[in-house]
Amino acid sequence: MKKIRIIGCGWLGERIASSLSGKYDIAATTTTENKVKDLNSKGIHAVLASFPDYQLAEPYNEWSEIKNADVLIITIPVNEKSCCVSSLYNRIQNLSTFIGDFKGQMFLMSSTGVYPDLPKEFTEEDIPLEKVSGERMLRNRYPQLNILRLGGLMGDNRLLKNYNVGNLDHAVNHIHYADISAIITQMIEKKTGAKLYNVTAPIHPAKSQVINAQKNIPDEEVFEVKGKKVLSSKLVSELDYVFQYPDPRTFHL
């Protein structure tokens, strides 16, 4: 049984862990004692760990669970929106010390937020990883790193109708967590390495259309959907992947 380690078992990390448990041996990090107990009760060996954006007086020891691991999944944010470049460097240094010289398959959950808010379709070539500080720093340290730029995380209790949103005629770039887990599983099985993929549902309705669908309101108005669309066509082509939830208007069903 392959050993999979997850750094950051929050909303997404826990759902990835749940989908992989049974098929793989899972261990994870989280930031609270209560979450450690909760994960352990579900059969996921959890430890307490956080990765601050300042230099630690005493660096972390290497995670004991990493030494014989086959796959590492990182879900903690490593982007400039969460901290400045110097702070980001410290966070990644702390993370790298914890990981050590890991040689197995690796995944970083990045974000489609790296693309500017412009009314066009974006592919990975528009913003290469060399232009994204966190992605570049980690890929330089771990050349085998797969980077998944995730759209807005949706599914279960995360529905657009529950949020106060503007620009209702703008397209959504959403992804259901079940597809994230399925894509990771497929990449694990194919032993995929050093890839950069956008991960968004291939259909991009307007925010108002998604909200109407979730409220069971007929969507009679026909209009041009505005804003940016982040395309996952490279992932679909290279992995021959078929989305379980291609249309954000059905995420709640």
TrEMBL record:
Residues 6-91 form the RCK N-terminal domain. It comes from the Bacteria. Pfam families: TrkA_N. Coiled coil: none annotated. GO terms for biological process: potassium ion transport. InterPro entries: NAD(P)-bd_dom_sf, RCK_N. This is RCK N-terminal domain-containing protein. It comes from Chryseobacterium culicis.
